[in-house]
Amino acid sequence: MNCAVITGAASGIGRACALRLAATGAAVALLDIHGAGGTRQEIEDRGGEATEYAVDVTDDDAVREVVAALPAAPTVLVNAAGIIVRKKLLECSVEEWRRVVDVNLTGYFILLRHVIPAMSGAGGGSIVQIASIAGHTGYGFSSYTAAKGGVLALTRQLAAELAGHGIRINSVSPGVVTSGLNRDTLGNPAIRSATVDNIPLGRLGEPDDIARVVAFLAGPEAAFVTGADLVADGGMISTIHWGE
Ligand code: NAD
Known about the structure:
Layout: E1 3-7, H1 12-23, E2 27-32, H2 37-45, E3 50-54, H3 60-68, E4 76-79, H4 94-121, E5 125-130, H5 142-163, E6 167-174, H6 183-186, H7 189-197, H8 207-218, E7 229-232
Parallel strand pairs: 1-2, 1-4, 2-3, 4-5, 5-6, 6-7
The protein binds nicotinamide-adenine-dinucleotide.
Domain Ketoreductase: 2-175
Protein name: 3-alpha-hydroxysteroid dehydrogenase
Keywords: Oxidoreductase
């Protein structure tokens, strides 16, 4: 049985990944800080198999226990749990900085350090890390940008390290996607329309736009792809606006 572990599975991109991977027949393990009952119910209503775990991805002991309790050895891991603090460097407290780096980067490390041995023991698998266009560009919020840049570097670093375990690892860098993370910001009509104006494809991303890319990287169609980042942003960072 294929078992896919997804963090941040209660909402947005993680939830969409869980629905899509469950539809391919994987038993999905849903991790989120307050559990992921809604996602589990949706999957079960569609005839899929899901277990949920209320776990903070920064809690090493708790993640170890969850991985030990999985119904089957994991063959897919999607690291998606994330938070943002919308502050410039000089506005950001040390506590805020630490929490953003803790969840968005150290939390990925904690999942990797417990899942990789189990995945390797099961003969290998595929890992997809949700990074961001913020890791590629000056996005404005330093703690988030730094953490996402770390995810990109870590993913590249691990490609060679994990190949001998039969594990591929890639990242996806979403652009602006409608989700819990930016519900408030995109709720402002002026910000929303200025953002869309900067996206050549003329719309915001939907969580399933990202989940489809994740499913590709996680699955056999991407058998020769590792250490890569796939930008899914509607063309946003490929474009320079000259104020016309
Ligand atoms: P979201 O807020 O809808 O979902 C994030 C989920 O992570 C939530 O369910 C939340 O409860 C969970 N979470 C937060 N902290 C956690 C912790 N410590 N332990 C366990 N779970 C925790 O946001 P989203 O947009 O779906 O975010 C998913 C990923 O996509 C994040 O890594 C985010 O940085 C990334 N991303 C989002 C966008 C975007 O525009 N929405 C763009 C680029 C990258």
